[in-house]
Amino acid sequence: KQLAMPALKGDFQLYNASCVLSAIQSLQNKLPVNVEAISQGLSKVQLRGRFQYIAHAPDVILDVAHNPHAAKSLAINLEQTKSNGQTIAVFAMLADKDIAGVIQAISSQIDAWYVSGIDHVRGASVDKISEAIVEYLPQASIKTFKTVTDAYHQACIDAHENDRIIVAGSFFTVAEVMRGLNGNIQK
Predict the structure, then answer these.
(1) Cβ(81)–Cβ(164) below 8 Å
(2) Nearby residues of 96 by Cβ (< 8 Å), 6 or more positions away
(3) Positive or negative torsion for Cα 12, 20, 8, 101
(4) pTM
(5) Which of 123, 141, 172, 183 is deepest in the core (most CB within 10 A)?
(6) pLDDT digit string (tens) for 111-127?
């Protein structure tokens, strides 16, 4: 029987799924799992904060994307799921991360940056993030906000039905939006 494709987006998820299948096969004598359960698991798996759609019209996507590799995966996923409108990034990062590398990795997919700092001892300031964007993208459209929540709310106000909002840059960034929604996340 043919197994379902992984529900998680990204080519690297096929590699991850193959690792899982290898582990299941290795443990089959001690922990048997039938093919239907494996297929169902692959097709229904969810990983919060990793290319997670939480709303539509406009699309709102949460993706931690806190390093250049993860940001490149986000950019590929965004490219493969083209939008007819603008892509707004609600963006905040930790100061000890490769801010410039993340910006470079996703910049081709972003039309407007809604930037804030993160209220944490490791959080990068809104100025540091904005300067990194301008250094790489001198003509970038940037709006700055005191909090991630403020940036997200303004993005929701500004976005049109065919636009999309990407919340990215840190687990803290995604968590703040999730907390603000109080679990009211559409699937």
Answers:
(1) no
(2) 122
(3) negative
(4) 0.85
(5) 123
(6) 999 999 999 999 999 99
